[in-house]
Amino acid sequence: MPDGTTPLLLRQDSAAGATRLTLNRPDSRNALSFAMLGALLHALEEIAQDDAVRVVVLAAGGPVFCAGHDLREITAHRNDEDAGRGFYTAAMQRCAAVMQTIVALPQPVIAEVQGIATAAGCQLVASCDLAVASEAAKFCTPGVDIGLFCSTPAVALSRAVPAKPALEMLLTGQMVPAAEAQRIGLVNRVVPAAQLTEATTALAEQIAARSAHTVRLGKAAFHRQRNLPLDQAYAHCAAVMTDNLLAADAEEGIGAFLAKRSPVWQDR
C-alpha cells in the first residue's frame, strides 16, 4: 500500500503539449484502488480544462501496467455492515466515471503499455483512444477464473474489438499477447520494449503538432457518431464538418496546403 507520501499518479508536461500520466503503485501492480481511481479522475478533469495539453499519454511504472481493481481492498470491505455493497457500488461508479472521462476528454489519450494489463487494467487500455504496446505486454479479462465476470471491462473491450474475440477473452480469461492484441484491434502498435517510450512519444507529438481545435472536434465527433444510426451519424458529422470548415485553422490549413507551405495553427 502507498505510504501516504508517495503520489499515486505522476504528471509530466512536455513543451510539445504532450502530458504523461504515470500510474505509480508498482508494488501493488498499479491496481485501481478507490484512491487511485480518484487520482486519475481528478487529473483527467484538470487536463480537460488545460488548453496547453494537446494529447495525453497514460503510462505505468514497474513491470505491470495495471492489475485491475484492488482485490485486497475489495476483500477488506466484505467486513462492512452491508457486506461491501455500498463500497462496491461506489467503486464501480468511480471506475465507470474514469473510463467515460477518458472517452469524453477533449484531448486524445494514448495508452503506453509496458507489461500486463488485466481486468479493469485491460478496460483502461480499451478506453483510451490509441494504444502502443511493448512486445512483452499481455492482456486479459480473467474475472471468470475467480467467479467474478469482467462485466464492466466488457463495456470498453466490446467497443474496442469485435464481439467474438472480446467474448473469448471474457469467457476464457486467457492471456492475449501483444501481437494478438494488435491483430484484434485492442492496440495500434507493438514495438520492442526498449523503444516503447520513444514510439509513444513520437505518436503523441505527431498528434500534438496538429490543430488542437481540429483534433478536439474530431475526437468528439468520432465517439458521438459511433452510437448513432447511420443516417444520424452522417447528419451529425456533416454538421461538425461544416463548423470545422468555418474555423480559422481549416482556412489556414487548406490555404497552406494549396500554397505548399506549413500551416501556422491558431487552435481555433
TrEMBL record:
UniProt feature coiled coil, ranges: none
Keywords: Fatty acid metabolism, Lipid metabolism, Lyase, Transit peptide
GO MF annotation terms: enoyl-CoA hydratase activity
Similarity comment text for this entry: Belongs to the enoyl-CoA hydratase/isomerase family.
Role noted for this protein: May play a role in fatty acid biosynthesis and insulin sensitivity.
Stated name of the protein: Enoyl-CoA hydratase domain-containing protein 3, mitochondrial
Organism the protein comes from: Falsiroseomonas frigidaquae
